[in-house]
Write a structure and sequence with these properties.
- It contains 6 helices and 4 strands, in the order βαβαββαααα.
- The chain is an alpha+beta fold and 142 residues long.
- The protein has one domain.
- A hairpin with a 5-residue loop joins strand 3 and strand 4.
- The longest helix is centred in the C-terminal third of the chain and has 14 residues.
- The radius of gyration is 15 Å and the shape is globular.
Length: 142
Amino acid sequence: MSPLTAPAAAPWSFKRLYDGACPLCVREMRFLQRRNAAGRLVFEDISAPDFDAAAYGLTHEQLMGAMHGVFPDGRVVRRVAAFREAYRAVGLGWLLAPTAWPGLRWLADRGYDVFARNRIRIGRLFGRECPDDACSVHRPGG
C-alpha cells in the first residue's frame, strides 16, 4: 500500500485526483494524508501508468488543467471545490468554507486559475521542480 492510499476497509467520502509527478501536488497530498486518520479521503494519482481519466468522464488534459475530486456516487468537482471537499473530509473544512460563499467562490476560483497556470513558476520559488515538464498545464488546442 502506497503512503498516499487510505486503508481499503475504510469508508471514504471523497477521492482527490492529484498529479503524482508534481512536487507541489504531492506535498499537499501528504499534508492531507497526515490528517486523514479516519480514512475518509482517498487519493488517486493521475500520473500513474494505469490511470484512466475516461473512468471519470474526463480527459488527461482536463485533469492536468485543474484539480478534480470525486464523490462515492461519481459526482466530480473541480478547482477550489475539490480542495474544499478534501479538507472537509479530513476535518479541516472550516479553513476553506469561506471559499463557498457568494462572491468569494468566484474570486477563489479565479485565484486558483492563476495558480494552476503558474504552478511551475510558483513551485520553483519554493525550490520545487517538476521533472520533464510534468506539471505543465496543457490547454486544448495549444
